[in-house]
Amino acid sequence: MTAAEEILRNLPQAATLTLILVFALIVLQEAVNGFHDAANAVATVIYSNSLKPVQAIVMAAVMNFLGVILGGTAVAFSIVFLLPTEMIAGINTLHEAALMLALIGTAVCWNLATWYYGIPNSTTHTYIGAVIGVSMAHALLVGAPVAEQLNLHEGRKILVTLLISPIFGFAMAWVIYKLIRLTIRSPEIYRPHAEGVRPPGGIRLSLIAGAAGVSFLHGSNDGQKSIGLMLMALMGLAPGVFAIDPVRHEASYSRTLEVIAELRDVVDAHLTDPEVPRAALYRAQLLHLRDVADRDFTGEVVTEEERIRFRSEILDLHQALGKALDNPFLTEILTPSELRKLNDAYDAMSRLIEKVPTWLVMLSAIALGAGTMVGYKRIVETLGEKMGDKHMSPAQGLAAQAAAMASIGAADFGSAPVSTTHVLTSGVAGAVQSSGDRMQMQTVSRILIAWVTTLPGTIMLSFSVALLLHVMLV
């Protein structure tokens, strides 16, 4: 049975119909992401006349696609894993589908509103706020503590990255602009943009290369987030098809079996330790995971129920590892070698359930490109004309691009999501400040207000919408 047939088999269910709507909204949200973040990536080349808009957008779509293909999925699932485990394991009830609808609906509405007013907004912040809001709603509805519904170990890493990345982007752009001033004497690079005037060839090529680099890194980081949520929706529509990596890569299985063996060594050493009350349960899960992985890789029959259980157990262990690494009492009784094994396992445990089908990546890239083509003008004008008291110069654009690439690259290295919008707009601000131009405080204040209000605003909105949809649908 093909994946499409498996999905269609469940169509009469109300939860399934809701998930189809969710999937369509995620694709729309990826287009809205193009309005904001992909437009940020090409703002400098379009505004400076280095490339025509269609050329820049095609380049951005291709580089975004390559970024997602080559960048893996660790960043995408770092946000997905913030959600309650019941949703990540497979959305199979109308309650969970309603929560997903609230999450995506909040993200779409917030991003469309900020785009309409030309405010560079962070899709990353929007997603995180919406995830926290629906997790709070889920906790209230099931009568569980919020802390149990959120992966706090992952959440702290994400929030720290989002906090320091704009500061890093501003400082990097400030320094890079000063370096450009010291090393490049050509006056053309410092002249503010003039309508219809193209920069000299070398400057133009540098701006194009910078935009391509930012677009690629956007795909490797920010462009992944909707893909993780699309995969969650597909898990609800066809859990047996998407529960485990459908392409049996030997390296993925070998690494999974290696991690399972290392975890068994740690668990076996603490089976009777009262500080690890669930050690026996974890050992049983590890034995089952090894059995299913062995059979699946060798081509033996693995039932749909076993695949779903496989995914659920990996998620359970992943969450337990995060809590263990945050538990000071537990880390005190573990040896440095055992702690290293837990850290390695936390990073690698979920790889077999994160595999994204290529067609899903292509759909994401197409949506990003289409969104950029439709909505790029508002964001390009904000960054090019309304950040400083003069129009952006090529040197300022180069500094902002280089700072953005450094910030996103560092986040990719740490498998942490970062806001392309925040690092690029803060980079533009740093370059403007470094050049001695005055900031347009009205624009800066609007951007800062959007930055500060996005997290609490989307938390409250998604929480309220989740409760409302639960009452209406469940």
Describe this structure in words.
Belongs to the inorganic phosphate transporter (PiT) (TC 2.A.20) family. Pit subfamily. It is found in: Cell membrane; Membrane. This is Phosphate transporter. This protein has helices at 3-8, 14-47, 53-71, 74-80, 85-89, 94-116, 123-142, 146-149, 152-183, 201-220, 225-237, 239-242, 250-268, 279-297, 304-326, 328-333, 336-348, 358-385, 394-413, 420-435, 441-473. The chain has two domains: 3-236 and 357-473, no CATH class; 247-353. The radius of gyration is 23 Å and the shape is globular. It has 21 helices and no strands. The chain starts with a helix and ends with a helix. α2 runs parallel beside α6. It is 77% helix and 0% strand. The protein has 474 residues and is an all-alpha fold.
Write a short abstract of this structure.
By secondary structure, this protein is mostly helical.
Q: Give the DSSP E fraction (strand runs of 2 or more residues).
A: under 5%
> Tell me, what's the shape?
globular
Give the terminus-to-terminus CA distance: 31 Å
Structural class: mainly alpha
Q: Would you identify the regions where 5 or more consecutive residues have pLDDT less than 50?
A: 382-389
Work out the helicity level. Answer: over 70%
Query: Main beta sheet: strand number and arrangement?
Result: none
Number of domains: 2
Give the SSE order as H and E letters. HHHHHHHHHHHHHHHHHHHHH
Mean pLDDT: 77
Strand count: 0
- Count of DSSP helices? 21
What Rg, in angstroms, do the CA atoms define?
Answer: 23 Å
Protein name: Phosphate transporter
InterPro entries: Phos_transporter
Organism: Alloyangia pacifica
GO molecular function, one term: phosphate transmembrane transporter activity
